[in-house]
Amino acid sequence: MRLSEPRLLIDINHVAVLGGIEERGGALRIGALARHSEVGASPLVARLAPLVHQAIPHIAHPAIRNRGTFGGSLAHADPAAELPACAVALDAVLLLASRRGERKVAARDFFRGIYATALAPDEIVTAIEIPPAPAGGRSVFLELARRRGDYAIAGLAAAARPGDLRLVFFGVGDRPIEAKAATAALQREPAAGRVAAAQAALARDLDPPGDLQADGATKLHLARVLLGRAAAALAA
Amino acid sequence: MSETVEIRLTVNGEAVTRRVAARQNLVDFLREDLGLTGTRAGCEHGVCGACTLRVDGAIVRGCLLFAAQLDGARVETIEGLSDSGEIAVLQAAFHERNALQCGFCTAGMLITAAELLARGGVPSRAEIRDFLSGNYCRCTGYHAIVDAVEAAARTRAGNGPP
Ligand SMILES: Cc1cc2nc3c(=O)[nH]c(=O)nc-3n(C[C@H](O)[C@H](O)[C@H](O)COP(=O)(O)OP(=O)(O)OC[C@H]3O[C@@H](n4cnc5c(N)ncnc54)[C@H](O)[C@@H]3O)c2cc1C
Ligand code: FES
Ligand code: FES
Q1: Which domain holds residue B108?
Q2: A51-70 tens-digit pLDDT
Q3: Which of A201, B9, B75, B114 has the most beta carbons within 10 angstroms of its beta carbon?
Q4: How do A93-98 and A124-130 pair as beta strands?
Q5: Is B59 close to A62, i.e. CB distance below 8 A?
Q6: Pick from A130, A161, A177: which residue ends a domain?
Q7: Alpha carbon of B161 to those of A214, B78, B121, B123, B124: distances in Å?
Q8: CATH number at residue A182
């Protein structure tokens, strides 16, 4: 279709140092070229980043997961993608490299808008580092999609650790969105009215634009449904 | 990008060396340059599954790969899998259950189902549907296809219908 006519296209698939999944000092390091299927099957990921393990089956279909990469998904920064939301919820750090050198950018500062990131034109993602899951940590990954494997209409990556809760929504804005007002309501209110208060507060966190799948009001409603389910799962 | 790139790869076990346009995708390369027309191009953006084939042992979308990326790769298409007999049980089950009409989706369905069956055991119908969810069929509907995959799994596991 020639929608794009790049003068140069670089295939990084054979750059071995960009691959691999390993534990370094308790933290999980996932190479940019790790395929979704490899990440989903990794016992290390299941143990150190259960949220990511839960998210992978929601990404498209087997033939897509055999090829799509962790770094590619983050660099692509689709607002409805699963992994960017997980990266923000888990306080992950992206390792970027160019001929000028290397730098680290926190996931929450990396995503700048629809398909827009902190990457400079000459930079690539080399790996992502996820801090160790704390003892007593819990995670819940939920999404609503019309068909199996579709991009989410609305999704939620939730990571709870003692004294700290992260609720990161995706598919409901131009990037993964941390729902701070809803989180505060969940932590502040007495148990009885907690979930309803958080669902009400979610309107201060999210103002979803409509897309081909649903209008903004429907997306906000679905995000509230997911919040209710996640709160129930985390309390269980 | 009008450059060409030389690639050496194996396709269905045979060594192939060709010079390809940098922008040519794998499906077009197989169909136009090698005459292997069993692999279909439907949507050409990864959604429909008609172009599903194997690269280095794993199923992928042929429409999302450039031929130029495949230097050193091992490609298997429906032609190779038919000739080797690897998917004969699946093919017989599709035939018996009328799991195809126009056949446009069939190569992709068979190759995807083969990866599921290679995991062993008899998957549940929900697992079959989940695994095939990225393969669209526009005429047969999915019921007969799920039936056929289930039947093939049972045959392979050495037990007939329940
Ligand atoms: C049919 C279909 C359904 C899909 N459904 C989903 C879904 O439900 N959820 C989901 O999250 N994703 C989905 N995807 C996306 C897919 O899972 C991949 O994550 C995504 O396409 C990125 O693929 P890739 O890693 O091959 O990167 P590419 O497609 O090769 O690259 C994507 C972009 O990122 C850049 N890039 C890639 N790697 C790097 C790097 N290391 N450093 C800097 N820039 C880089 C490229 O230049 C390009 O701009 C779907 C894709 C298809 C085709
Ligand atoms: S042609 Fe490749 S998925 Fe549709
Ligand atoms: S048999 Fe025609 S598309 Fe499936």
Answers
A1: 85-156
A2: 999 999 999 999 999 999 99
A3: B75
A4: antiparallel
A5: yes
A6: A130
A7: 42, 27, 14, 13, 13
A8: 3.30.390.50
CB contacts, 8 Å: A9 with chain B: 1, 22
Between CA B115 and CA B135 the distance in angstroms is 13
Does residue A179 surpass a pLDDT of 60? yes
Residue B20's domain is classified under what CATH number? Answer: 3.10.20.30
Q: Are residues A82 and A168 in the same domain?
A: no
Q: H or E segment at A194? A: helix A194-205
Q: Name the domain boundary from B21, B49, B77.
A: B77
Residue in the block written with tokens 């050496």: B8
Q: Which long-range contacts (CB under 8 A, 24 or more apart) does A24-29 make?
A: A24/A129, A26/A131, A26/A132, A27/A129, A27/A130, A27/A131, A27/A132, A28/A129, A28/A130, A28/A132, A29/A127, A29/A128, A29/A129, A29/A130
A interface mutation test: which of B130, B137, B146 has the most A CBs within 10 A?
Answer: B130
**Is A148 within 8 Å of chain B by CB?**
yes
pTM: 0.95
Q: Hey, which of A17, A54, A59 would you mutate to test ligand 1's pocket, going by the most ligand atoms within 8 Å of its Cβ?
A: A59
Give the gap in angstroms from C-alpha A189 to the nearest C-alpha of chain B. Answer: 40
Q: Please tell me which residue of chain B has the smallest CA distance to A68.
A: B60
Instruction: Please check whether residues B65 and B92 belong to one and the same domain.
Output: no
Give pLDDT tens digits for B18-75: 999 999 999 999 999 999 999 999 999 999 999 999 999 999 999 999 999 999 999 9
C-alpha A181 – ligand 2 centre gap (Å): 42
* Domains: count for chain A: 2
Token representation of residue A32: 């940019």
CA B146, CA A150: separation in Å to the nearest integer? Answer: 20
Inform me whether the C-beta atom of residue A63 falls under 8 Å from chain B C-beta atoms: yes
The per-residue pLDDT for range B67-79, each reduced to its tens digit, is: 999 999 999 999 9
Contact yes or no for A63 and B131 at CB 8 A: no
> A155: Cβ–Cβ under 8 A, 6 or more apart, which residues?
A58, A80, A82, A85, A141, A142, A143, A144, A169, A170, A171, A226
A5 within a domain of the structure (yes/no): no
